[in-house]
Design goal:
Rossmann fold; alpha/beta; binds pyridoxal-5'-phosphate; Alpha-1,4 glucan phosphorylase; 6-stranded parallel beta sheet; EC 2.4.1.1
C-alpha cells in the first residue's frame, strides 16, 4: 500500500476551554512582579463559567488558533515560514540541514497541537497517571516517526519536493537522540510509543544529557576510539525548554531537628549546595490517535549563574565556577551497559533526576486538592532498573519531612505507588552505594534508608523469630567494609510489584536474586512481563517494502496496532507467489544494507550471500567472541577446501556492530579481533564472496533500522541465564529474519510462539550452567578441539601480532571460561552448518521467514504496556475522542 490517508474523525464532543497552541498548560502563566497588571490581563480559568469578557477573549483566541496543515500548500507555507522566521534563512541560503530543521519545526507544530489538547484533556479528566522513571531513553530519530504517526508523510514529502529537496535526504540530516546505552533505553522508547498510541496517560522522566552515548570510531588498527556525541550542536527541534518548570535539588549538608507549626519536632535536611533542575519536554506522538505522550528530561543549572563578588575581585574563573559544576552534572551519560561503576557523579545524577521528577509529580498531585491517602490512586511510578531506586527514599522524605505526614502513612503511600522492573541478574550491574558516600551526599536519605530497613527487619523478625540468617539475607544494608546499600533490595521492600522482563529471567529473579524475599512477601509480589518492541518503528517505518506487502495481503493496516493480526500470514507461508514476493523484499533490504556498507565502508558484499548479523552492545556475556571464533573456524575450513568443495559452500557475510564501554578492556579487544580477522578474510582473494566480515561502526537506532530488515540470520547467543530478555531478537524475527540463539531470555518465548522448527537453537541450558562452571573451576577447562585449532591459528599470527590477543584468549583458559564458550562451541558450529544447509533450500527458508513474522504478535510493546497497565499500574486509557 503506497498511500495512507488519515481517517477523518468526528470533532471532539467536548469543546476545550482554551484554544490549542497557547494553552496555559504549555505556558503555566507566570506573572512577573515588575509588570503592572492592567485591566485587560484577564486569564480565564478552566471552569465552565466565564465572565462575558472572558468569553470574548476565549473566542478571539479560538478564532486565531493556527489551522491544520491540511493541504500541501499549507505545509509549504509552514515550512517557508519556519525557514524565514524560526531559522532566519534567506531562500538562497537554505541547505539540507536548514530544510530538515524547518520541516521538523513545521511537523512539531502539529505535534504540539496534539500535546496541548492531550494535556487539557488530562487536566479536565484528572485520571490516574503513570510515570516511567528511566535513566535512558534511546529514541533515535523523530521526524520520520512523527510523519508516520500523524499520517502525513506523503504530503510532507511532496511539499519538500516542491521546494526543491528530497525527503530521503532530509531524514538523513537528523541526529539520533542517543540518550541511552542499549536495550534498556530502547525499551523505554518503545514503551512511551505504545503508551501514547494506546492513549494511556504515561509520561517518561529522565535526564537531558548534553552528550549522549559516545560516537564510536574504528581506527586504522581496528580498535574502538570514542569521541563525544554532540547531538545538540545543530539545535534540537524536538524538545521544548520549559523555563517555567524548575526545581531546587539539594546535595550534601546535614540533618537538623526543627519544630514544625504544630510544635512537633521534625528532622530536616539543611545546608549543602543547591542546583536547579530545568525541564525539557519531548512530545511523543501516538500512532493513529490524537493523543500525544511526553518525556520530561531534566537539565542541571547553577543557582548562582555568575558570582559578581568574585568577578569584581578579578577572579574570573571563580565567577563561573558554580556554573561549570552545575553544567557538568547532566553533561554525560555513563557509557556502561549492564555494569555499575559506583561513581559519586552518577549517584548525584540519579538523585537529581528522581528528586526533580518527584517534586514535579507532587506539584501536579497537589493541584488536584485530593487527600494524601489518594496519592497512589492518582500516581503510579515505575522504576526502570536500579538507577531510580533512590526515589523510594526521596518520596518518603518529601512526605514526612516536607509535607508533614506520619512515617507509617507515608510508607503506605510509597509502597502502593512504586513498582520495580529488574533487568539483569548479573551481579556487576546491581547498584550498591557505600554508606559513607551516601551519608556525605544524601545524609537525610541515609537515615531514612536505615529506618526503612529497621522497620522491615523488625517485621521479618516477628514473622520468623530467631532466623538470623534470613535477616542477613534480606537486609538492605550489606555488612561489608565499608557497608553498602543494596539498592535492588530497597526496591523490593519499597515496591508493590517486582517484575522480570522475560519468563526465564523472572524465574531466575525469584530463584537466584531474591529467594529470601519470597519467604517474606510471598511469591505474588514477583511477576513477569515479557518485553516488547513497537511495530511502528521496527516494521512500519524501518521496512516499508515488507509493510506494504503485509498490508496488501491482510487487506488493512489493522496489524500496525493489533500485531496479532500477523498470524493471518501463516496461510500464505506455502504460497509460492507470496514466498517470491516476500523474499524479493528481503533481497531489496539486503541490497539497501549492502549499498550502505559499500558507500560508508568501501567493502563490497553480495546480497546473494547469507547475511548473518550480530548487533548489540559488546559484552562478554553476549559472546561476540564465540561468533568471531566461529568465523575463524569457517575461514580455516574454507582455506583447506578444494574448488569443488568450495562450490558447495553457502556464501556468507558476517556483520557485527556495537559499542564497548570505554573502560571494558576485554570487550574492546573483541572489536579489535573482529577487525583483524575482517582485514585478513576480506583481502583473501581465494575466498572471494564465500566469506566477508564487516564491523559496522557506531551502531545506533537509525542504523538498526537499516540493518534489521536485511538479516537472514541474526545471532543472540548469550550464555544461558545471562541475557534477561533481549529485544533485538524480536526486531529481527518481526522482519522475517531467523534466529541462531541460545535457550535464553526472550529467545525461549519467541521459539514457543513461532515454532521450534523456525529457530536454530543450541547451547547449555541455564540450569546446567552453575555445575559446569563449578567443574571448570575445579578441574580446569578442557578446550574443544576445533576451538583449540582456532586459537592456534590466532597464536600463529595469522591475524597480526598474536600477543595482543593474549588477554582475550586467557579468558578461555586461565580465566576459567566463565561464559562457557568452549562448552558451547561444538553445538554452535553444528547449528551453523544446519543454517548453511537450510539456506540453500530457498522454498523452505522463505516459509520459515514468513512463519517468523507471522508468529510475532505477542512481542508488540502494545501488549507489554497493556500488561503493565493492568497488572501493575491499574491504569485506564483516556481516549482522545
Ligand atoms: C534494540 C536495540 C538494542 C538492544 O539489543 P539487544 O540485542 O537486545 O541487546 C541495542 N541498541 C540498539 C540501538 C537497539 O535498537
Amino acid at each position: 500500500m503506497a498511500t495512507h490517508t488519515r481517517k477523518t474523525r468526528p470533532q471532539p464532543k467536548r469543546r476545550l476551554s482554551l484554544p490549542n497552541v497557547t494553552s496555559r498548560r504549555m505556558m503555566d502563566v507566570v506573572i512577573h512582579e515588575d509588570i503592572k497588571p492592567v485591566d485587560v490581563t484577564v486569564v480565564p480559568t478552566r471552569s465552565a463559567k466565564h465572565t462575558p469578557l472572558e468569553e470574548t477573549l476565549l473566542e478571539r483566541w479560538k478564532s486565531l488558533a493556527p489551522h491544520d496543515l491540511a493541504s500541501t500548500t499549507d505545509i509549504e507555507k509552514s515550512i517557508v515560514y519556519h525557514t524565514t522566521y524560526t531559522l532566519c534563512r534567506h531562500r538562497y541560503n537554505v541547505d539540507k540541514t536548514a530544510m530538515y530543521s524547518a520541516t521538523s519545526h513545521s511537523v512539531r507544530d502539529l505535534l504540539l497541537k496534539e500535546w496541548n489538547t492531550t494535556q487539557e484533556r488530562l487536566h479536565v479528566t484528572n485520571p490516574k497517571r503513570c510515570y516511567y522513571l528511566s535513566m535512558e531513553f534511546l529514541l533515535g530519530r523523530a521526524l520520520d516517526n512523527a510523519l508516520y504517526c500523524l499520517s502525513t508523510k506523503k504530503e510532507y514529502a511532496e511539499s519538500v519536493k516542491a521546494l526543491g529537496f528530497s525527503m530521503e535526504d532530509l531524514l538523513e540530516e537528523e541526529r539520533d537522540a542517543a540518550l541511552g546505552n542499549g536495550g534498556l533505553g530502547r525499551l523505554a522508547a518503545c514503551y512511551v510509543d505504545s503508551s501514547a498510541t494506546l492513549e494511556y496517560p504515561v509520561w517518561g522522566y529522565g535526564l537531558r544529557f548534553k552528550y549522549g552515548i559516545f560516537k564510536q570510531i574504528i581506527n586504522n588498527e581496528g580498535y574502538q576510539d570514542e569521541t563525544p556525541d554532540y547531538w545538540l550542536s545543530h539545535g534540537n527541534p524536538w524538545e521544548l525548554r520549559r523555563d517555567d518548570i524548575k526545581y531546587d535539588v539539594q546535595f550534601y549538608g546535614y540533618v537538623a531537628t526543627k519544630m514544625n507549626d504544630a510544635g512537633e519536632s521534625r528532622l530536616s535536611w539543611e545546608g549543602g549546595e543547591k542546583m536547579y533542575a530545568v525541564a525539557y519536554d519531548m512530545p511523543i506522538p501516538g500512532y493513529d490517535t490524537k493523543n500525544c505522550g511526553n518525556i520530561r528530561l531534566w537539565e542541571s543549572q547553577p543557582h548562582n549563574l555568575f558570582d559578581f563578588g568574585a568577578f569584581n575581585n578579578g577572579d574570573y574563573d571563580k565567577a563561573v565556577n558554580d556554573q561549570k559544576r552545575a553544567n557538568n552534572l547532566t553533561a554525560v551519560l555513563y557509557p556502561n551497559d549492564n555494569h555499575d561503576s559506583g561513581k559519586e557523579l552518577r549517584l548525584k545524577q540519579e538523585y537529581f533526576w528522581v528528586s526533580a521528577s518527584l517534586q514535579d509529580i507532587i506539584r501536579r498531585f497537589k493541584r488536584s486538592k485530593r487527600p494524601w491517602k489518594e496519592f497512589s490512586d492518582q500516581v503510579a511510578l515505575q522504576l526502570n532498573d536500579t538507577h531510580p531506586i533512590m526515589a523510594i527514599a526521596e518520596l518518603q522524605r518529601l512526605l514526612v519531612d516536607v509535607e508533614g505526614l506520619a512515617w507509617d502513612s507515608a510508607w503506605d503511600i510509597v509502597t502502593k505507588t512504586f513498582a520495580f522492573t529488574n533487568h539483569t541478574v548479573l551481579p556487576e550491574a546491581l547498584e550498591r552505594w557505600s554508606v559513607p558516600l551516601m551519608e556525605h551526599l544524601l545524609p537525610r536519605h541515609m537515615q531514612i534508608i536505615y529506618d526503612i530497613n529497621l522497620f522491615f527487619l523488625q517485621k521479618v523478625e516477628k514473622q520468623f523469630p530467631g532466623d538470623r540468617d534470613l535477616l542477613n539475607q534480606v537486609s538492605i544494608i550489606e555488612e561489608s567494609q565499608p557497608q553498602q546499600v543494596r539498592m535492588a533490595y530497597l526496591a523490593v521492600v519499597g515496591s508493590h510489584k517486582v517484575n522480570g522482563v522475560a519468563a526465564l529471567h523472572s524465574e531466575l529473579v525469584k530463584k537466584d536474586l531474591f529467594p529470601a524475599f519470597i519467604k517474606c512477601f510471598g511469591p505474588e509480589k514477583f511477576i513477569n512481563i515479557t518485553n516488547g518492541i513497537t511495530p511502528r518503528r521496527w516494521l512500519y517505518q524501518a521496512n516499508p517494502a515488507l509493510r506494504d506487502i503485509i498490508t496488501e495481503t491482510l487487506g488493512s493496516e489493522k496489524w500496525v496496532t493489533h500485531l496479532d493480526e500477523l498470524a493471518q500470514l501463516k496461510k500464505f507461508a506455502d504460497d509460492k507467489a507470496f514466498q517470491k514476493k516476500w523474499m524479493d523484499v528481503k533481497y531489496r533490504n539486503k541490497q539497501r544494507l549492502a549499498k550502505w556498507i559499500s558507500t560508508n565502508m568501501g567493502i563490497d558484499v553480495s546480497p546473494d550471500s547469507l547475511f548473518d548479523i550480530q548487533v548489540k552492545r559488546i559484552h562478554e556475556y553476549k559472546r561476540q567472541f564465540l561468533n568471531i571464533l566461529g568465523v575463524i573456524h569457517r575461514y580455516r575450513e574454507l582455506c583447506e577446501m578444494n574448488d569443488s568443495e568450495r562450490s558447495k559452500v553457502t556464501p556468507r557475510v558476517v556483520i557485527f556492530g556495537g559499542k564497548a564501554a570505554p573502560g571494558y578492556f576485554v570487550a574492546k579487544l573483541v572489536i579489535k579481533l573482529i577487525n583483524s580477522v575482517a582485514k585478513v578474510v576480506n583481502n583473501d582473494e581465494s575466498i572471494g564472496d564465500l566469506l566477508k566480515v564487516v564491523f559496522i561502526p557506531d551502531y545506533k537506532v537509525s542504523l538498526a533500522e537499516i540493518i534489521t530488515p536485511a538479516s537472514d540470520i541474526s545471532q543472540h547467543i548469550s550464555t544461558a541465564g545471562t541475557e534477561a530478555s533481549g529485544t533485538s531478537n524480536m526486531k529481527f524475527v518481526l522482519n522475517g529474519g531467523l534466529i541462531l540463539g541460545t535457550v535464553d531470555g526472550a529467545n525461549i518465548e519467541i521459539r514457543d510462539e513461532i515454532g521450534e522448527e523456525n529457530i536454530f537453537m543450541f547451547g547449555t541450558l541455564a540450569d546446567k550452567v552453575p555445575d559446569i562452571r563449578h567443574n571448570q573451576k575445579f578441574y580446569g577447562v578442557l578446550l574443544d578441539a576445533n576451538l583449540q585449532a582456532v586459537i592456534d591459528l590466532i597464536e600463529s599470527g595469522a591475524f597480526g601480532d598474536a600477543s595482543i590477543f593474549n588477554p582475550l584468549i586467557d579468558t578461555l583458559t586461565y580465566g576459567g571460561d566463565y561464559y562457557l564458550i568452549s562448552e558451547d562451541f561444538d553445538g554452535y558450529l553444528k547449528k551453523q552448518t544446519e543454517v548453511d544447509d537450510t539456506f540453500r533450500d530457498k522454498t523452505l527458508w522463505a516459509k520459515k521467514s514468513i512463519m517468523c513474522t507471522a508468529g510475532m504478535g505477542f512481542f508488540s510493546s502494545d501488549r507489554a504496556v497493556r500488561e503493565y497497565a493492568d497488572k501493575i499500574w491499574n491504569l485506564k486509557p483516556i481516549p482522545s475522542e
